[in-house]
Alanine racemase
Amino acid sequence: MSLTLNVDGERWRSHLLRTVRAHPGIVPVAKGNGYGLSVARLARRAQWLADHADDTGAALDTIAVGTYDEVGDAASRYAGDLLVLTPWRPFGAALDLDARLASRVVHTVSRPEDLVDLRERHPEARFVLEQLTSMLRHGMTRRDLAAAAATLGSGRSGLRGVAMHLPLNTTSHLGEVSRLINDVVASGLPTRTVFVSHLTEAELARLATTYPDFTVRPRIGTDLWLGDRGALSVTATVLDVHEVERGDTFGYRGRSAPKHGHIVVVSGGTAHGIGLEAPTGDQSLKARAATLARGGLDAVGFVRSPFSIDGKQRLFAEPPHMQASMLFVPSGARVPCVGEDIEVRVRFTATDFDRVFIA
Ligand SMILES: *Cc1c(COP(=O)(O)O)cnc(C)c1O
């Protein structure tokens, strides 16, 4: 009766171990909806990975969470340090951090003035300094880094490294990373640790040889938790099936069936993050005229859904409801039974599953 994420546990766990083994210094990222698995579950699994350091050969001393609001969920299940990816600011959730957890947190600081403020409030605070990258999300410019270096001086401080968040899918990050590392050296900051995202194994290896005095620590979420898609499947339960003739009305909007077929009601709706799919392919007038001529269901306004029956993606009979969706299955196709599970294609980072089964 649920939208369910099914995990082949053995296959998933061996992928996790393999990924950690291949990335010494890895910082697993457990944020947001936990990539579909929840932050709590990922934090527990990160602790399991830390406990398997003998297998992986890699100590796992830190995980990353997205926000200060996620710290509590992770902290009670994972015993190591918690790097917060959202930069510290002198307001809001950062200031509400539970004092008992503060010593386990590593802050991200992205503005020179925040560095001064944070250290005034918490002289013992540990932090990484984020560098501005071509993403232009958060971070310090070269000049900001020099200002931060002046603030910190050469003595002991909570500085744990610098962090850079790089765009996805660029041909190579190496040029940009080299420039950023050179900025770290030029700034005089007393650190040789760099936290990075979205570098390939080959890029990480290249950096290790180019900058042997630096420790490069990859922050990895997607490729760790979701890296072996074959270990994951998503299913929805068929809750009801209604045969309709052409002209029969159904749904919130009382629309009428364009031809004989079945309305199939399945679990999973807007509350789970199930949305309308982008219209199929070519939406030019000419293409639409051709579809109309063929009498396709998309011509009568049915939109592609992420639900599939027997490998065929089905159309929504109307937009998804809060906890359920209505599909239209034209006559000729096999009609699934009530209680049967069908496949769903989702974006894991934007889906709230009713259940996660790790077999
Ligand atoms: C989300 C995030 C990551 C992890 O990204 P994935 O693509 O899931 O590996 C790394 N660094 C930062 C700053 C992030 O926000």
